[in-house]
């Protein structure tokens, strides 16, 4: 026996589906568990990857970038969309190349933080987020692409956490910190 909150709502009709290369906008009427018809709008986007790059005990970040949605410049880990036909690892490697100039040959280890994808979902957005940790060899990186570094120490980890406002970057960072580094700080 399922409760009301566990019942799946039924799609009554789809009154709009608008595709672009970045997203699909969908308008639907859904029938809830009480039989009421509700109008819902949502956006479907390609899944995303965020990569936490580490080189010689330093977390690497690209220059802060302007975010139109929040109207400010923010500090973020390298991230991007997973293109059709691309594996998650290929998307992570391409993201590191694009944002930090890191070649695939310079990645000594690429560790997925999650294999199922975390739902980045609201009534208006729908995608999955995959996190990776990339260990980078001692190759000299271009200073104009690596704008900020943080040591893997408790004090700097706390400082970085204070400076990350993107909830997706924070989720990847905290997952790494709890699963891979927490025992080093005790």
UniProtKB/TrEMBL annotation:
Looking up PROSITE patterns in the UniProt record yields: NUDIX (PS51462)
The record ties this protein, via InterPro entries, to: NUDIX_hydrolase-like_dom_sf, NUDIX_hydrolase_dom
Source organism, top-level taxon:
Bacteria
Q: Which residues form the Nudix hydrolase domain?
A: 44-179
Name the Gene3D superfamilies on file. Answer: Nucleoside Triphosphate Pyrophosphohydrolase
The name this protein carries in UniProt is: NUDIX domain-containing protein
Q: Which organism is it from?
A: Phormidesmis priestleyi ULC007
